[in-house]
Amino acid sequence: MENKTKLLILVVLIATYLFVGCNQTMRDPAKTIESYLNSLINQDTSSAVSLSCKQWEAEAQKEVESLLSVRASLDGVSCQTNFENEGSAIVICQGKIKLTYENEIQEIDLSKRTFQLILEDGEWRICQNK
Questions:
Q1: Could you tell me the residue range of the domain that residue 90 belongs to?
Q2: Which CATH number is 87's domain given?
Q3: Three-class secondary structure of residue 29 per DSSP
Q4: What distance, in Å, lies between the first and last C-alpha atoms of the chain?
Q5: What is the pTM for the complete model shown?
Q6: Fewest 10 Å CB contacts: which of 45, 52, 78, 122?
Q7: Residue 43 burial (C-beta neighbours within 10 Å; 0-12, 13-18, 19+)
């Protein structure tokens, strides 16, 4: 009987740990922005839109469309949440988006942008970048 109790406690602890860990990953605003940036460079409109708030969906489509004629890559990108409350967050990133068209390379310095997110339908979604 004692072994069954220990096993039950162990299973509950592991399940709790996994649930909390997964929940934190899904609710990390910085990870949302990193995923959004990846969807841009991969020209994945549906992913970019799904990571956007309803107000930003058209802008997400435009951002993907603006990269269709270039080869894009991320260079040294890492993002961190600078501010977070119950319904909004601000994320800042380091690194660059490199854009290549024929032999010309241009860079977008992400440290000069601020990404604003809102909590919509239980998920962090980009809603503006400046």
A1: 2-129
A2: 3.10.450.50
A3: helix
A4: 61
A5: 0.78
A6: 122
A7: middle
